[in-house]
Structures are given as structure tokens and as C-alpha cells.
Amino acid sequence: MALVLGASRGLGFLVARELGRRGHDLAVVARSPEGLEAARGDLEATGARVVTLPADLASRPAAESVVEAADRSFGRLDVVVANAGIIQVAPLRALDAQDLADAHDAIFWSAVYPVLAAIPVLRRGGGGHVVVITSIGGKVPTPRLLPYTAAKFATVGFAEALRTEAGRDGVTVTTVVPGLMRTGSTRNALVGGDREAELRWFTALASLPLLSMDAGAAARRIVAGGLAGRPEVVLTPAAKVGLRVHGLAPGLTQRALTLLDRLLPAPGDDPPQPGHTLPEQPWWQRLLTTLDRRAAVRHHELDDETPRR
């Protein structure tokens, strides 16, 4: 049985569907009950038994209750996928400390609380697999993504350190490091500063085939790597190159990314709000982001527009 966190839409939904196709029954978690119900039919079509567990995983009691409910529903736990999160796209001047706290709640603690609760259950069953989905932003500092990057760096550290100790209990921990993927999630990103301009560059990059990856293909590679117990899965050629360059010459990459920031829209100071609440993009932007918008329909991004916490 697989417990998938952040599974109502986007990559989490696709990972859950891939696990269902591979014969796993599913306990799926998200904050939105409506979003989970919208995804349920597609997940059940894989032949899996599906239990939906609405919860805010940033709450430790709620996260522990989710693990208990999944174990109680199926009598065992074999796989845990930590994928819950938010993303804030904004310049520094549009952010405050609460934005960083929100990101850590939604990304870091929403992985830590349920994974730590699941380890004894996995141990009791003789072992299993933990898959923690992070980001290239958790390895390489990225402009306009400060809260996201800080939370993802923390999550990478948690996953890598956890692997060093969980193995004695037969539990493998896989750190997944995706680059840009065409999930359609950009419309639910929290966008600040010059909001419309920030959303334009972010959605454009997420739609370009040479820079971004088909999310279904990414889900297949994530599941294959997690079930094989690989230490790390890096997705997209750009992410692989970025990791290698940053590892060899971190000063060089930081200088290059500082220059990149100056090519992005002039910083504004409007606080972040969901991308789907902004005015409709111009026709040329909609044409440029066709792949991302189609992905949003397929991956239930329109069915779960859970607002900022």
C-alpha cells in the first residue's frame, strides 16, 4: 500500500496514479476534500483501492492521524511519497518572514511529520520505501523563489540524513530532485511583485520542452527509482547540468544566477497571491504556454485551487 502526500493534483496525483498502475492500493492526502474526490475516479481506474484523507500536514497531530488512518485502512504500509507543498514566485522586496514560514510549513514540516510517523509502521512491516520529492531549487539557489528554495534545501537535508539511518530498519529513502516539469501547477503558484510579469516568465519556462519535462514521464521515473531504493533521482537534463556545475563551482553559479535575476521583471512589492486569480494572460502568452495549460486540465489543477494557508 502506498501513502501519497499532496496527491490531489499535479505531480503528486501522477505519482499516485503510477503506483496504482503498478498494483499498489492508495491512501491519498491533500488539504482539499473536493480536490481529492475529483482525482479519486482517475486513481480508481488503475484498479487500486483508494482512501482519501483530507489533512493539513503542517499540523503534527493531523499528519500522524493520516499515517494511522492509512495503516488502519489497509493493514500495512509499503511506500510513502512526500510531495505536499506550495511555491511562491516573487522578488525579495515582495516577501516577508511569514512567507518563509508558510513555505516551511507546506514543504518541510509537511514532509517531516508524516514521514517520521510512518517510519515505525514501515519498520514493523519489515521495511519499505520513502520517496521525498524536493526540487533543483533545493540544491541550487534560484532567484525569485527564496521561500521555496529555503524550504526545499531543508527538505533535501532531511531526506539525505534520514537515509543514512533508516537503512538498518530495511527502509530506503530516495531524494527526488526535479527540474521544471509541465504539471500545469503554475496557475496555482503564489505570485508576488509585478504579479502578471512574474507569472509570464514562470509559466513560459515551465512550458518549454527543452527546459521542462512531461510530468507523466517524470512520475514514472520517480516511482521506478523509489521502488528500486535509489538514493537520488534527478530529473531533466538542465537540472543535471545545474547540479554538476554548482557542485564544482558554486561561486560561478551564484554569480550567473545573480545576473539572471537582473534579466527578470523589475521587482515590485505586491504580496503573493494565486496565479489563477490574476487577469487572463494575453493571447501570445497563452499560445506560448499551451503545453502547461493542457497539463493543468489533465492533472486536476483546475479541480483543486486550494488557497494560501
From TrEMBL:
GO terms for molecular function: oxidoreductase activity. Its EC number is 1.-.-.-. Transmembrane segments: none annotated. Keywords: Oxidoreductase. The keyword Nucleotidyltransferase does not apply. CDD domains: SDR_c. InterPro entries: NAD(P)-bd_dom_sf (IPR036291), Sc_DH/Rdtase_CS (IPR020904), SDR_fam (IPR002347). It comes from the Bacteria. It is an enzyme of class 1 (oxidoreductase). Belongs to the short-chain dehydrogenases/reductases (SDR) family. PANTHER family: DEHYDROGENASE/REDUCTASE SDR FAMILY MEMBER 7B, DEHYDROGENASE_REDUCTASE SDR FAMILY MEMBER 7B. This is SDR family NAD(P)-dependent oxidoreductase. It comes from Actinomycetospora rhizophila.
